[in-house]
Predict the structure.
Amino acid sequence: MRRVVLAYSGGLDTSVAVRWLMEHRDAEVIAVAVDVGQRADQSTDSWDAIRARALAAGAVEAIVVDARREMAEEFCFAAVRANARYEGKYPLVSALSRPVIVRHLVKAAREHGADAVAHGCTGKGNDQVRFEVGTRALAPDLDVIAPARVWGLTREECVEYAAKWDIPIEVTKDKLYSIDENLWGKSIECGVLEDPWASPPEDIYTLTKVTATGPVEVVVGFEHGVPVSLDGVRLDGHDLITRLGVAAGSTGFGRLDMVENRRVGIKSREIYECPGALALVMAHADLEDLTLEHDLHHEKARLEPRWSELVYDGMWFSPLKQALDAFMVESQRHVTGEVRLRFDAPGIGKVAGRQSPVALYDRGLATYDAGDTFRHEDAEGFVRLWGLGVATWAARQGGVQLADGQDTGGVTAEGTGR
Ligand code: ARG
């Protein structure tokens, strides 16, 4: 009998997958549930209950791994360094958790002598890509099995299948949305949201409900691009992200409603709640404005979208992504300081101030007041040389339209003038 390690969530699909792998792939199933911070509000079953359900579904072994710290400090903070926002918006919530889970699937496969890993994703999404490409990067010898891509069961048939095999799952009402959550935020899809014109119902939001009665200010401290403190109190990564998320979310900050390009060629309408992620990236990018040298800053900004695309597309463990990480880490040498964030309901978040012991902002240079240390006389020669090429072009070839519609009367290609 072969052994298969299954990425187990405790939900209907992965519970059915346990039995399906036993029946249709003649496999012993090791269920691995990875805690990436998805139970922040404890609204879902406990890990003990999830573990018990995997065993009840037929797994020979059910393992729960606490990967919150790893998720926060190795994955989310790498995203902070890269100011990661896929398509300029989405801070990669689900995309960041998949490689964390993959690592633990592969580890369990090695420990339990499995020759395959399995996941519950369908064929239409990005998560299958992330699970499979990630697994192939870490363990090219392992097979990947995706039961939900094979079985062709509707949700109703899944419920019947669970009942037939006594898989303990409460399916009280129709599941309205497809939700994926971790400590970086929450992704919400399906149901009424599939109409991109329809406004998202207010009751889908759980992390960004307005409960604050006034503005909220928080000071985020960074060392070498890594968030280390809130209001001067040093916190570990997971705690810091969660607390900042609660503070920002209490003013309604952190919602996104977007149509995005999936890797598999489908455009989908997505709602995200990610107050902590958006607040941290906003603060970090602002501290870079203060501390990064001009060329480094501009080049980094060109590479950031590429980093986000690679991670979105399941390339976390790829050589290009690793090389870009090395660049990102090197770029953060002097990204140390504090950023003061201010949140006002409903949903407005801003940087209110920033400071750094290694700021490149120099008040003596920037000021228009007395005490100015800038050498004005240097500017004349600099500007003349900066514009020399354009001035030469204008005299010999130019033909730029003036405001009154006349052109500047440069020389034509034939050299006859105008
Ligand atoms: N569209 C987002 C992404 O690809 C969210 C995916 C959420 N996954 C889920 N199983 N609901 O990263």
The domain at 2-174 is CATH 3.40.50.620 (Rossmann fold). The first strand starts at residue 2 and ends at 7. DSSP finds 14 helices and 14 strands in the chain.
